[in-house]
Amino acid sequence: MKRYFVLAILLLAMLGFGCAKKPATPEPEPPREEARIETPTPPPAPQPQPIITDEPTARDIYERNYAQLPTAHTVVKGECLWWIAEYEQVYNDPFMWPLIFRANRNQIDNPDLIYPNQVFQIPRAFSLDNIQESRRMAGAPDPYLPPHTATLPADIRAELGWGF
What we know:
Elements: H1 2-17, H2 58-67, E1 72-74, H3 81-86, H4 97-103, E2 119-121, H5 128-138, H6 154-160
Antiparallel strand pairs: 1-2
């Protein structure tokens, strides 16, 4: 027990005295003034003129992308008009399947019966009235407007007041 007592006193003594003091650092000397040679500043370089280009607007880009979408679809086993209309490259809205049905009436007698390897035309030119009628026929909720994510012609997006 005596050992622990002596050890504790030694530790307290070391803590009390602490570490050796740091040597005092001399104060830094004030900066010397150097002789400055004045050089004339060169005139500013002429600013390059901005190149004015006909940047495409967001609508132009949207129209270009819309024009590249497929205009036909080959049916694969297990597909239905609902699924085809839901594809992002088609309409991205399953309630627009009646547009495909109407455009391909010569191949489709019953919209519930389509067959593999049938090639359907995907209409790309239609009006807002056509969309609303198709969505009503497919059972969409009133007011029969497509969602913002639907793939629509630029004119219809502008008519609905949506951005590009």
